[in-house]
Amino acid sequence: MITASLLILAAYLLGSVSSAIIVCRLMSLPDPRTQGSNNPGATNVLRIGGKKPAAITLFGDSLKGLFPMLAGHLLGVAPWVLAAVGLAAFLGHLFPVFFGFRGGKGVATALGVQFGLWWPIGLCVALIWLFVAKVLKISSLSALISMSLAPLIVWLLWPDPVLIGMQLVMTGILIWRHRSNIRNLLTGSEGRLVDQVGGSDQD
């Protein structure tokens, strides 16, 4: 229990390290919480600073989900601990203790958790995201569709009730965090991937 507790705490603290805020500070860019959509995520960093800082932010956010899950595997923890670790990293990104509990929307970190759980799961979710993004060219819709299908993918590839439950919780929170995007999608005002600016965040 001590190992599990320390791993869960470490996952939350790592998740609380905001890649967007740190990248913007290091690259002398405006605080993403005060510019654009005010969301500390890769999409808003793209809007503020361009592709390079956005890519670094996306990579950093993914690693926050990946590393704790890999650590859990190396320590040989039970599935329920893996589930708790994944949720802790995800919630750390959404509600970072180091940045006033004001975080992003969690797509990249959730994907990192999925790759860390088992790489075929992450790959399936990522491929769905890429396919929808290429066809529909709407990032938030790609995230909503791929993450909505993620519980089914976990069920098919690793049908452990606890892990399926973890993904259901993450998917539910992601949908809730994207409620403004859903409103924009319904009204036809959601930004597209081809847009250089505008639209609303999904990370």
- Give the percentage of residues in beta strands: under 5%
Count, helices: 10
Oligomer: single chain
Q: What structural class should be given to the helix and strand makeup? A: mainly alpha
Number of domains: 1
How many β-strand stretches? Answer: 0
Q: What is the average of the pLDDT values?
A: 92
The N- to C-terminal Cα distance equals 32 Å
Shape: globular
Largest sheet: none
Task: Describe what you observe in this structure.
This protein is mainly alpha-helical and 203 residues long. The protein has one domain. The chain contains 10 helices and no strands. The longest helix is centred in the N-terminal third of the chain and has 25 residues, at 51-75. Residues 196-200 have low confidence and may be disordered.
Please give a handful of descriptors for the protein shown.
203 residues, mainly alpha, 10 helices
